[in-house]
């Protein structure tokens, strides 16, 4: 099976072009290709498929095989792949996701997409602002935001000192979140700049999470901490998030998308 490895600020996935390939068990394949020792190594698997309602369709599977509704860094890479590989021959187009149809704008350079802006739609507030939660005997305040997929945003004064490997699973699997949750830890630098670490549902700590950055920008503006356009610094790079709160209500994410390499694997070897 042919694959392409792509990353958006270090959030890396194995992409399969399902216009040409067919995948029988994507959950199982996601677990196998994501393994960083016995597989290709990635935060999960993304299928780029034909769509009856948009220009193409994205299906996204975490490293543990669970399917998510949305992936912000993933959809920018889907946009780049579709544009660079001529699946779609225009610089603005629609991608069907499990969270609805998302509109993409490609910034090309020398015929290749270098940056993609995604209209992530209207966020949904899923908690009180803020809501109290007790995790492993300690009280925390979080703001719940859905970007199609679930996020819980926490504020801290020093995110670098967090032991996410130890703490992450307790936040992800807390009984408050029966579907589990993505968890963002935010340090506010100023009204236009925040720093973030993320513990992703189904994949653990990743270098970046696009929908998580969007949820964090919305939570930060909502709670009066920042303005409606912020730069979000993540482990693997920066994203710009704009929430058009007083207009369409939509959230827009802009950032890079990179193709790392292409290859072929024999599934029986994974
Ligand atoms: N890294 C992604 C989000 C991937 C899905 C997430 N782990 C979930 O289960 O919802 C992003 O860039 O948004």
UniProtKB/TrEMBL annotation:
GO terms for molecular function: diaminopimelate epimerase activity. The keyword Isomerase applies. GO terms for biological process: lysine biosynthetic process via diaminopimelate. It catalyses: (2S,6S)-2,6-diaminopimelate = meso-2,6-diaminopimelate. Homodimer. Catalyzes the stereoinversion of LL-2,6-diaminopimelate (L,L-DAP) to meso-diaminopimelate (meso-DAP), a precursor of L-lysine and an essential component of the bacterial peptidoglycan. Belongs to the diaminopimelate epimerase family. This is Diaminopimelate epimerase.
């Amino acid at each position: 099976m042919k694959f392409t490895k792509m990353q958006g600020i270090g959030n890396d996935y194995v992409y399969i072009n399902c216009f040409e390939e067919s995948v029988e068990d994507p959950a199982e394949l996601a677990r196998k290709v994501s393994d960083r020792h016995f597989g290709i190594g990635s935060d999960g698997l993304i299928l780029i498929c034909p769509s009856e309602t948009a220009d193409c369709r994205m299906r996204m599977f975490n490293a543990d095989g669970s399917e998510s509704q949305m992936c912000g860094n993933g959809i920018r890479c889907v946009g780049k792949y579709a544009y660079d590989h001529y699946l779609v021959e225009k610089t603005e187009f629609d991608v069907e996701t499990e969270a609805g149809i998302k509109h993409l704008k490609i910034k090309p350079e020398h015929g290749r997409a270098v940056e993609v802006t995604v209209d992530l739609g209207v966020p949904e507030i899923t908690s009180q602002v803020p809501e109290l939660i007790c995790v492993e005997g300690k009280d925390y305040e979080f703001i719940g935001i859905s970007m199609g997929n679930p996020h819980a945003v926490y504020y801290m004064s020093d995110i670098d000192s967090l032991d996410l490997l130890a703490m992450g699973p307790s936040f992800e699997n807390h009984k408050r979140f029966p579907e589990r949750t993505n968890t963002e830890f935010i340090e506010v630098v100023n009204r236009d700049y925040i720093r973030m670490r993320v513990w992703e549902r189904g994949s653990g700590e990743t270098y970046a999470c696009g929908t998580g950055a969007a949820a964090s920008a919305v939570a930060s503006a909502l709670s009066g901490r920042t303005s409606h356009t912020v730069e979000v610094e993540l482990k693997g790079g920066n994203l710009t998030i704009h929430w058009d709160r007083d207009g369409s209500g939509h959230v827009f994410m802009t950032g890079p998308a990179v193709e790392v390499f292409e290859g072929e694997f024999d599934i029986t070897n994974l």
